[in-house]
Structure formats: structure tokens, C-alpha cells
UniProtKB/TrEMBL annotation:
Transmembrane segments: 133-153, 246-266, 328-349, 385-403, 424-457, 490-508, 557-580, 587-605, 617-640, 661-679, 938-957
Alphabetical keyword list: Membrane, Transmembrane, Transmembrane helix
Region described as Disordered: spans on this chain: 85-113
Biased composition annotated in UniProt, kind: Basic and acidic residues: 98-113
Protein name: Glycosyltransferase, group 2 family protein
Entry keyword Transmembrane helix: yes
Organism listed in the record: Mobiluncus curtisii ATCC 51333
Amino acid sequence: MDTGEVDQGQYDGRGDVLAVGTAGMLVDWDAFRRLDGFDPHLGPFGDGLEFSRRVRLAGYRVMVAPRAVVYHKMAGYFGLRGPDGGRPARSARSFDSTGRDADVNGKLEPDPKRSFTARRTAQLHNWMVAAPWWQFIFLPLAVLVLGALRVLWRIITKEPKLAAGELKSTLVTVFRPFAAWQSRLRRARQSKVSPRTLRPFQAKSSQIRQAKTTARRVAKDQRRPQIPDGVARRNFYTEKSLDRTLVWSVAAALILVALVGWRFAIGGVSGGALANLPVSNRDFWNDLISGWIPAGLGYGSTVGAADPLGLEVASLGQVAGLVGVKGAVVLAVLLFATLPLAWLSAWWASGVLTDSRTLRALAALSWTLSPNLLVSMGLGQLPVWILAVSVPLFVGSLARGAGMPVTRTVMGEIEPVTVSVHSAAIIQVGIAALTGFLAVSASVIMVIPVVLLVGLAMLKGVANPLYVGTQAETRASSFSRIPARLRLKAVHALIVLSPVVLLALPTAMRTVSSPAQWSLWLSSLSVPLPVSMPNWWDLLTAWPLDVAATALPIALPGWQILAFLPLGLLLLAVVVGVIIPGRSTGAHWSLLFALGGVVTAWLASSTPVSVSGADAVCAWGGPGLAVFHAGLITSALFSVGRLELTMPAEIANWSNRSAKAVVAAALLIPVLGATPVLVNQFAAPAASGFNALKTFRDASLPATVAQGQSSPRHLRALNLEVASAPHQSTLVTASLWRDWRDTTFEASPYLKLKNYRNVTGSRTPDAADAVLQTTVAAVLGGSTPKLGEQLAQLNVNFIIVPPSRDAATTALVNTLDSAAPLERITTTEAGTVWRLADSATASLARIAPAQWKGGHPSWPTGEVKAQALNMRGGKAHVAAGPAGRLLALSERTDSSFTVRFNGKIIDPVETGQWNALYQLPPSSGTVTITYAYLPHQLWGAVLLVSLLIALAAALPLRRVSEVRL
């Protein structure tokens, strides 16, 4: 009978069947000898099916006797017998989620997985034997392909032992062909009737699907909490229903708050510290794989220089661009989703520390409406948006992966009943690996708390509730099979740590080789945005800027007191909870993490990492404050657990009721603290000091410039901003745009720090930076000799000056108007735009006759008539030309570039220039330009493998949860 099927006598009258098992089989001895007995290649599994088929084909019958009674222990099937007939090895034994050995009191528990390899091998052998000849020819290839897919599926379903069994059975079947040939020859020699006679006895595919569906339904029902107490069961599901109603109601309200407060971003968002996403094009994926950074004059030969979070959101924008969704809309969706996702993740994470609905709501609201998150949303600090979701998910999944259950106490018929739900550890470990990777992507300094938490989960672990419940029973015994604490397994820790350590490795190596770049640990993805530096009280109340220096259009009476109230009271509660002695040290460990977070925030807020005009911009303290706030909430939950807020109302005393009332009233505190920010965000977001975002407009980049950037010549724009500076008459800030203004490439910490060190003189500019400075000086000089060629060498075809009425900007506009190689084309919201009069000279790749000096070719210094190439997918057609001509790339020179002419590699000409030159033959052909930095690709491949392993672990397939009362 199938799994879950009830015996109602439906098979009692059955007679002829396809096959019967060898256990209890009665067979005529003469027929058994005539058919050469059982197949020696099968063993104890599948031999009955193969022998019964030969019996049928030999003209005999196979029948069942419904009234016969056979007792079969099925020791081989359940893995109770080893290969030698004795007891299976210890490696075949299993352990439950609480660490208990399944081999209880010396009795091995049945487990069909132990015999899987032998059964799968027999199944494949039977398939090879029974298949028609026209299928048998291609069957080995089909078995190999199917085996690879099944191995992958077993890995995804978190069954590594079965994956090994799948691999072994596939290889044994394919590379042992003589066994199948011998069995097929024996079957053909003994057959007297056609194989078609077996069809009426074979199960149809619909019957097989129905049986599998029934088995899955039965397994799903078995995973549900089995609570014998009817009252407790009813109360348990009622509480879960109330939780769902509360959670999704608050999430809907937070979505509404985000839509109203940032309503200007519905069509797209930009501004503040928010970097734009690159425009959708296939070059992005080539650069992502190769390791080239398309920012400014290009950067390469550096592992991990591009910000990982920038690459992640840019990849999301590229995928959205395939269906016509702009990157600014993708950023707006992330903005609107931050508050509800932060609430959902904080609610879910708090479930491992308390089952009090009110306390979980208070913790989740405190996290969601924190000033750090609200201000970071208004100023466009994308990393904090990501941390608001990833940090709670990481902490909650790591605790569940270590074995910490989610408990709930409900009133039963007579007494309270505590239900503990243990999640599947491997799934939670996969979630922890992915969310930890996201957290470190947002801020590389997050690798420190991630590694420390994993270390604590391995060394200290969590208390085992099963041990606490049975401690009195085993007190007299000197040995207990139930561990006192549950710890994270070493393999699970490796899955969690591999992605985050690999992600932080380039930064660690970079700072070891160049200690002057240590501030990379504090910097994160953002456009340089000057803000007022917070003081210690601001940081202790989770404000990443100076609250006193912030201007508000609607200044509510005493709004600063409201702003400091939530975190001030939380900090006070944590200090009191730590001072009062208790059994758990979780509050103390959490407070240590919080102190580390606030110190990190202070260090970041006082460390310059970029430059904006004449101002040095410090790192954003939001990531450190996220750790600080998470540590305070966790510490408070550990401390408040002593108040017994989970006591059912039917038996709660006055102290329990009073504590619940206080916690319920405290729900208003996070809302009151967020009122100053939200009121100003609702009423006047453009004038609020907590908001720097604005509506994204296509006019922010002129259409002519955008078309040139996306053309086959990949033209660039030089943006010049003029501002007054101390001790100088004017300060000109120059930036090269390959895409929409400041993209995620330009906003990476590595490039920001490089520019900052160039400006402050702590770093010597390289040849490319020097050429850019010389060209900008030539542009400011107006109609200087060879200005057009200087711009064309940098592939600059457009110059943009943002609108301003100051005298310095007016003088610059007049200078550019008088420059001979330039012509004004338009004036938009982005500013006044000029382009090269001879636009055909600028391109990413150009060809010109060589100028020879000392027997070596070089780019001509006089009047240049260069041919601009149209590059599509890294390829361009080149017409025939004079001998000795040169190909120039408008990219920073790098040894990882490979140029081929008609498939033949061309070596670069050593000239000491900032860019690479290549000597082309005079014939026509196709030029192919590729870039590949092998260390980046190897690092990326290993990182991708670790992420795929984490993803396979996190997929909720074959989900298992253990419920205990």
C-alpha cells in the first residue's frame, strides 16, 4: 500500500502482479534453476522485480496470496544491517537537531537513507536491463545526465549523503556495462513471450504521480505541530493568527508611511548620497566578469575595487532594464520597501528571544523607526537600508541554525503548555550566509561582528531547552546523552563564513600592503555628501548627524527631546538589566557588541574618506550605529525575559499584568521619537534637514550626452563645477562621466579614497590623473593649442558646466564659448553643454599614423587626423591603411588588456603614456579588445561557488521542523 493509505481490504482479492519481493517468495525449484536464479549483480534490492519479469517472459505466472502472512523485518532497507551483515558503522548513524544520538539505549533507529545507494544502483540496473534495444543504445548517456541532475537536486535539498549515493550509483551503472549486457542476454535467452505482455501489470505514470503527491501530503501533515492538548492546540493557532494579523497590518502601514513621506520618489529617486545605477547595457556584465571598473579613465588590476553592494544593486538595475525599468525606479522600490522589510525581519529575529507579542512589536518598532534608519533613508545612504534588513535576518537565522528554538507558551486544559519549534538548521545556516554576505557588502567593517557572532555560536552556543527540561531526571546519572548547550557545527560555520571572509579579503590585503588606506574599512557606498559631525550624545541615541545643527521647516516644541527619547530610554533599560544579576550572559555579550558599534560609528564620523568640492567628507556612521542599536535591543530582550511576559493571561498575577501594561505603553515611544522626522518628511521633504533626495529627472543629463555615451564610440562628458574655496580665488572640480552622473562605480570607497588622497597630496597622481589635470587646465585656458586633441585623447566629446549665477561660473562659460574646438549645443537643467566641433575625432579607440622617434613609434604630437572606431561588443572593423599606424585606447594602461587583429594578438607599444598604444598592420580586418584580470576572476569564481552553496542551503526544499512540548 502507498504511504498514508488505509488497509480496507482493497487488495485482498488481487492475483496476478508484475513482481513480488524475494522475502517470503515461493518459487518452483525447477523453474528457479531453469532461469538461473536471481541476478548476481543486484544484491538484496530489485532482485525480486528482475526475477519476476524473467518468470513472466518465460511463460510462468507471478501471483500473490492475500491470506498469506509473512513477517519481514526489512533490516537491509532500514539500514539496520551493514554491508557485511553486521551493525552499520557510526558514520551511518544520525543525530537530531538537539544533539541527541538517534541510537538510543544501544538500539539503532531505522533509516532508509542508509540503503539508498544500493537501492538506487539496483533501480538503474533494472532500467538498463528492461529497456528496449533502441533505448538501451542511448541509455548510458541519459543515466549520466539524469545522475548529474539528481546529484545537484540532492545538494539543493540538503542531502549530501544521498548526493554521494546518486553519484556512486550512476558511475557504477554506466562504467559497469558488462553487468547489464549479461543480464539482457540472459533475459533474451530465457524469454518465450513478448515483453508487451508485461504492460498490463505496470503502473501508469499518472498512478506514480498520484502516489508521490500523496506521500508529500502525508509528510507535510507530519511536520505540523502535534499538540495532544486540544485547548492548547486551539490557543496555539489562535496566537499565530493574531501574530500574522499584527505583522502584516503594521507592514502595510509602514508601506503607506514610506509612500507618503517620499512621495516625490514614486517615478524615480536620486540625489543626496544615493549613487545612480549604470544604464542597462551588455558591457556591464563584461566588466563585472573581467574586473575592469568603467569609471573616469578606467581602473583595473585591483581585486575588489568596485563596491560589492554597488555591483549588486547595479546588477539588479541591469535585469530591470531588460523590461524597460529605469535604475532610478529600482532605487525608489528599495526605498519604499526598506521600512516594511526592516519591520518584518526584526519581528522574525526577535522570535528566538521572546514569544511575547507586545515585546516583539516593541523591539521591531524600535529597530524600524530608529533615527539612524530614517535619516539614512532621507539622505540616500543605501548601505544602511540594506543593513536594516540583513542584520536582523542574520542574527535570527544564526541563532536558529545553532539550535535555538522558537517557543510559545499557551494555556492548556489544565496547565500552561510550552511549544518549541526547532527549524531546519541547514536552511537557517544558508540564510545566515546570504544575509551576512549582504551585511558585509553594505559595509566591510561588518565582517568583524559577523565573525565574532559565528565564533560565539560555535564556542558558547545556546542553552538546550530539552536539557533544562530533563535535568532533574538525569541529575543522579553521571552521563547524559542530551547536551547542555547547542552549538553551531563546524561545517555550518564554514558555510556562513566563507562568503563574508572572501568578500573582506581584498580590503584586508590592501590595507596590509598600504596602511594609509585603513579608512576603507569605515567607508561605504555613497556619493560624497557633507553633513554635520555628531557628538557623543547624538551617537549614543543613534543619530548619525548633529541634531542641534539640523534645520527643520516644522520644528515641533521639544522635538529634540522626542528625538533622543527612544534610544535614551533603551540605553537606560540595558544598563539596568546588565547591572541586575541574572543567569544568562546574553545581555552582557550584546552590550559589548553595542559598545563596539558606537565606537565604530564615532571613528567613521571623524575619519575623512572622500572630498566634495573644497570639503573633506567623513565616512557615514550609520553601519556602526546599526550594530549599536541591534546590540541594545538584543541585550534588552535578554534582560526583560526575566519578567515572565509570556505567562498566559489565565494564570498571570498582578506583577505579570503590570509588566505587560508597561511594555504595551512603551510601544508609543518609538513612534513619538520618529515624529519629528516623519512630520517634516510628510509636510516639506524638500526643506527638511533630514532629507536630501529628490525626484529623478531625465533632464539631469542632456539627451545629446546620453546618446553619445551609449553610442558605439562610448563618448564621455567632462563636468566642471566652480566654487569658492579658502585661500584660493576659485576651486574647479572636474569629473568624467561615462554614465548618469555619479554611478555606483564612482561612489565606491576605493575610488573616493583615491580622489581624496590625490586632492590632499597624500598620494602621487598616476599618469592618467596627471593627463586629466593637464587637460582640465587647458580647458580653463580657453582656446589653447591642441585642445581638441587633448580632449579627444581622453574620449571627451562633451563639457558640462552646471547652472550658477556666480561670477566664476559666468567667466568659465564665456571662456568655453570662445574656445575654437568647442561649440555650445544646449542649456538644460543639468547646465550648459559644449561638444567638440569635430566630433568624429573622439572615440574609445582611435587609429592614427605613428610618429617615429629613435626607432620607436608614438602617438603624433602635431595635428592629428585620427580615425574613430565604432566599438560594438569589443569589436570594430578597420579599413586598410598605411603601415606603422597606431591604435590608441582611451583607457588607463593595464597589462590585462588583450588586443587582437584578425584573431592574432598584438603586443602594446612601450611609450610610457597613460594609455596603451598598439601597432596595426596595413591590411583591413577586425580589431577585438578584451580585458581579463585573472586574480579578480579567480576570486570571483571562489566567491560565487561559496554563494551558490549558501543559496542551495537556504532554499526551503525538504523543509523539516521539529516540534516539542
